[in-house]
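hi! just following up on the protien thing from before. the input was this:
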Amino acid sequence: MDLITSVSEMRHRCLTERQAGKTISFVPTMGYLHQGHVSLLEAGRKRGDLLVLSIFVNPTQFGQGEDFEVYPRDLAQDSVLAEQAGVDIIFAPDARQMYPSGYATYVDVERLTETLCGASRAGHFRGVCTVVNKLFNIVQPQVSLFGCKDFQQLAVIRQMVADLNMPVEIIGLPIVREKDGLAMSSRNVNLNPKQRQQALILSSVLRQCAEQARAGERDALALIDFARQQIEFRSEARIDYLQICNQTTLQDVTLIDEQAVMLLAVFFGQTRLIDNGYLLQ
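and the predicted 3d structure came back as:
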């Protein structure tokens, strides 16, 4: 497994591999890998001749006062997990490589970014789309894999790829959870024991709302009210958003159907967690 930190070296290596007829599968991450990332890497290993993992904590997708400085980082441990998963190349540039002096170009996707995380984190998706666009240009993958925990991010990236005619297949894989149901996230390490226990309400309330929907409840507001009461009962929890949306448009729905997905973002202390679940699938 190779570790590359230079943009020019990474681009040259990937172009050479493609000219040799190899298929590149790519998993972009911000590092501090967990089993959710590993599931993406294992799927990527099966879909390409060359498996590339990027590790880059992207400053442009963090707003003022967010957790960029305390976002967990451990390249040594990431390298162990990556090698075990069959990664061929880790691309780990620093911010000066990705955003050199004078950098002035950004990518915006409209409509899909106006709700959910886009509404509460101004500029977040501009940063996400810009860095993913840059990574695609550097790595030149035919296939790229993302987790469905970041539901809105996946939808936005698919829109960007379609709109800009990018020749890369975007694959979304299911949420990977801890044994107790908590969605795996690099940020989970920042939870104290009390917050970690209370955070279990997220997967629990998604499951309960899906059970109510399958039992016949079709009123989205009723399910949102139920979920809100359950979450707000936890002393450490502070809701950022709690919405039921159409899975394609991400617009709020009033009546539950097969396209309805509940999405939530909740702070436990200073740690912001997201989760989601379909209600009738």
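The CA atoms of residues 35 and 212 lie 30 Å apart.
The longest helix spans residues 124-139.
cheers
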